Amino acid sequence: MFAQTFFIVWRESIEALLVIGILHTWLRHSSQNPRALRFLWAGVCAGIGAALILSFVLQSISNLLPPEGQDYFQMALILIAGILIVQMVFWMRQHGKTLKNQLENDLSDQLRSGRLWGIFGLALIAVMREGTETVLFLQGVFAATRGNSNTVAGGVILAILAATASYALLQLGGRFLSWKVFFRLTETMLLFLACALMVSAAGYLVSFGILPYTDPLWDSAALLDDTTRFGAVIAGMTGYRSMPDNVTLATWLVYWGAIASIFWLQGTRLNARERKA
């Protein structure tokens, strides 16, 4: 639970810091209106507030449901979190290179028209997107691992501190770690984490009787037991099971088959655009 929480918040916090840094740097160097930065930071605070409200709403809904309803709600959160992680990875692969120019062009348009509230809106949407993704991811991980709030809080605090330090290193111009390497490494880890969530969701479907229960296909506990502390971390981050059944194996195959297909389609479209250019 701690490892998943730390990684999700660490990665999403760096992405949020990247967006805020782009907006802040451009405004500081290009805007003659000192009020523009105030609207930027107001939007950042509003985005964080919106994410906290979403967290409260989701927790309130879960508490209002009967025990069986809570199980279905948690399974839905796990599935949503897994799907959103995959969507985020491929969205960043497609738009990451143009993100900086797009944000700066949007800011330029807002300043030319004198719409300072537009700057507020840009910051709000950017931060709220990262914040709501983080909330949904954490809710999904929390449901999948049935962790406790103290573990989540500790992971969040340490992850934010680590993200601030990591962002500072990344801003040094690739001397220690480049943005390209960072995104490639973390997107791979995110895809494995999404797989873990899908396996957990499949486990819920088996427990509900929607999918059939079968005996384990093999036992690899001698190599890595997922009931040990280290094995549990690997299982939570990758979807590994030392005694997988038919449903778990099918989940792995369907998930990674879908990921490979998306990679292939994205590469095909990119090659087609390059040929047209």
Automatic annotation (TrEMBL):
InterPro entries: FTR1/Fip1/EfeU. Its main location: membrane. It comes from the Bacteria. One of its GO terms (molecular function) is ferrous iron transmembrane transporter activity. The chain crosses the membrane at residues 6-27, 39-61, 73-92, 113-131, 151-170, 190-211, 247-265. It is a multi-pass membrane protein. Belongs to the oxidase-dependent Fe transporter (OFeT) (TC 9.A.10.1) family. This is FTR1 family iron permease.
